[in-house]
Design brief:
Elements (H helix, E strand, L loop, with lengths): L1 H18 L5 H27 L5 H25 L5 E3 L1 H4 L6 H11 L5 H16 L14 H20 L5 H12 L1 H7 L2 H13 L5 H9 L5 H28 L11 H12 L6 H6 L1 H5 L4 H14 L1 H16 L2 H4 L7 H5 L1 H17 L13 H4 L4 H29 L6 H28 L16 H28 L2 H32 L1 H8 L6 E3 L2
Antiparallel strand pairs: 1-2
Helix pairs in contact: 2-6, 2-24, 3-7, 3-8, 3-10, 3-11, 5-7, 7-12, 8-17, 9-10, 11-12, 16-22, 17-20, 17-22, 20-22, 20-23, 22-25, 23-24, 23-25, 24-25
Length: 547
């Protein structure tokens, strides 16, 4: 088994090594951001190493279980909220090789370290601090390391459970809403009175009998009895069994592992009879055929194809649901607070909601318009359809979903009884038009200069490289600058008309920029069509980042 694990690790190392000579500013920026992020936790770990050495054991018994509960919550929940569960195996790439299931399971468990490496750093800092504390018996602080396998097994079980839930078409959006609701709890706890009321329950949970974090804290402080060790081992074994069972389900449920077989004659006849039935009247189908009434072919046909394709893709449906609901609900706790520091959000709630939803949808709709097509994008270069028409169809599809997201967000605000004024609606329309046109312009250029494939089945897996993340950050920064100029003019001239005037000027500039970018992208796309198709046809490595 270990030989197979080392072989997979060596293959991934070689794949990563092949990318090193092409390291660019995007990768460098990603490394700088990662260094800054992990440096924060390294500083916190250093602080724990010095602080825990001077705290009496009586206080450690009171607060260490609470700290370990925080480590547990971060390890298990934050990766789900941020949609970044670290590295994971690409099973569809590895299952064709004679690799034992135990080896795959072992690698997947070890990869759960990458879902929250910050907590490993924090635990090491706490370990050093307890070792330096003269009141704590020597070597007992190493019991903190027993908390690691429990979290690894449980993190794998939770990840596989969510992946299986999102793999079910009827429940994918429901689980996305559930995940959003859980992610919003910290906002409500920090910004409402609910946090004060929940504090006693949090303390009770941290000090609860038989809780794994309490047993680890007890052992690490030198209070050895058989009961804490047995309970911790039972918790770890239960997490192991749950992780093993969920991982086995993932292996069995992987559709790409199943051999293809010809359909039985009875099944074929059933499919034929279903196909022969007349189609029932579907309101959605009528709406999707509206482009044929408004535009002429081939633009109408391409636009209808885009709308139908996007609605069938699990990744896009989940992102669209998050944009419609999460963009509204995440800002509501801020509006519940009264004060000068929240006045801006309360006054411009709807524009902020629309811009945040636009930002969520931009990666799938605007900044990488050929990602979902993957190798099928070659049809755009071999068919007699002009390439600028293809770009316009994809841009129009993006506009349709952005408008639909804005309308649904407005409906959610109405359901939640959030006060929205006509002036706020006008500001939201103007701001969304400016930023959307800017994103479409940049996205057309990025889609032909840096195309990358996106697997529509992978709901939450991150599929962007360092350069793409740099462009996304630059586009986000550009959005903030565009809005900052408009609101700065409103503040300086003390009139709302200044905001609208700046937005109108920016819209005119964005329209000119869009026309220029569209022509440049069309010309570059035809010129580099082989490179684009080759980039969109590439497969994944044995390991992937995200869920």
């Amino acid at each position: 088994m270990w030989a197979q694990i080392f072989a997979i690790a060596w293959a991934q190392l070689r794949i990563s090594r092949n990318h090193l000579p092409r390291t660019d500013i995007g990768s460098v920026l990603a490394w700088i951001v990662a260094l800054f992020w992990y440096g924060i936790f390294a500083a916190a770990a250093a602080g724990l190493a010095f602080a825990l050495a001077r705290i009496p054991v009586a206080q450690l018994r009171q607060y260490l279980p609470l700290g370990l509960l925080g480590v547990f919550a971060f390890w298990q929940l934050i990766p789900l909220f941020t949609l970044s569960t670290g590295w994971s195996l690409q099973l569809n790439k590895l299952r064709v090789y004679p690799v034992h299931d135990r080896a795959l399971f072992g690698i997947e468990v070890l990869l759960r370290i990458t879902s929250a490496p910050e907590m490993i750093i924090v635990l090491l800092g706490a370990l050093i601090g307890l070792l330096r504390n003269p009141q704590v018996p020597a070597l007992w602080p190493f019991a903190l390391l027993l908390f690691v396998p429990f979290n690894l097994f449980l993190a794998l079980a939770i990840r596989e459970l969510f992946l299986q839930s999102f793999a079910r078409n009827r429940f994918r959006e429901l689980f996305a809403i559930l995940l959003i609701s859980v992610a919003l709890l910290p906002q409500f706890l920090l910004r409402t009175e609910l946090g004060q009321k929940a504090r006693p329950y949090l303390w009770a949970l941290a000090r609860g009998q038989a809780a794994p974090w309490r047993e680890v804290a007890t052992l690490s402080l030198g209070s050895f009895t058989v009961a804490p060790l047995v309970l911790l081992l039972l918790w770890t074994f239960a997490a192991y069994r749950l992780a093993r069972a969920q991982f086995a389900k993932s292996l069995l449920g992987e559709e790409t592992f199943r051999p293809e077989a010809a359909a039985p004659p009875v099944l074929a006849e059933g499919v034929a009879s279903i196909a022969a039935r007349p189609r029932s009247h579907n309101p959605l189908d009528v709406l999707l055929r509206l482009p044929n009434r408004i535009f002429a072919d081939p633009l109408a046909a391409l636009l209808e194809k885009e709308l139908r394709s996007l609605l069938r893709m699990p990744r896009f449906r989940v992102l669209f649901g998050i944009a419609c609901i999460f963009s509204v609900v995440i800002l509501i706790p801020i509006t519940l607070q009264s004060g000068h520091h929240t006045a801006f959000v309360r006054a411009n709630l709807l524009p902020l909601i629309n811009l945040y939803g636009l930002l969520i949808l931009s990666d799938a709709l605007m900044l990488n318009i050929f990602g979902f097509d993957r190798h099928a994008a070659q049809i755009y270069f071999v068919s007699p359809v002009p390439f600028p028409v293809v770009l316009k169809a994809k841009n129009l599809a993006a506009v349709v979903f952005v408008v639909l997201q804005a309308l649904l967000a407005l409906i959610v605000c109405s359901v939640l009884r959030v006060s929205v004024s006509p002036q706020s609606i006008g500001d939201a329309v103007a701001a969304t038009a400016v930023v959307g046109l800017f994103f479409l312009s940049v996205g057309n250029l990025m889609s032909v200069l840096m195309p990358r494939p996106i697997d529509p089945r992978q709901t939450f897996r991150k599929q962007a490289g360092g350069k793409m993340q740099l462009w996304f950050f630059s586009a986000t920064l550009g959005m903030f600058l565009l809005m900052a100029f408009a609101f700065l003019a409103q503040w300086a001239l003390d009139t709302h008309w200044a905001l609208l005037a700046v937005l109108a000027l920016e819209l005119a500039i964005a329209f000119i920029f869009y026309r220029i970018a569209l022509g440049s992208a069309a010309e570059r796309g035809v010129q580099d069509r082989e490179k684009i198709v080759d980039a969109l046809s590439k497969g994944a490595s044995p390991l992937g980042l995200g869920m």
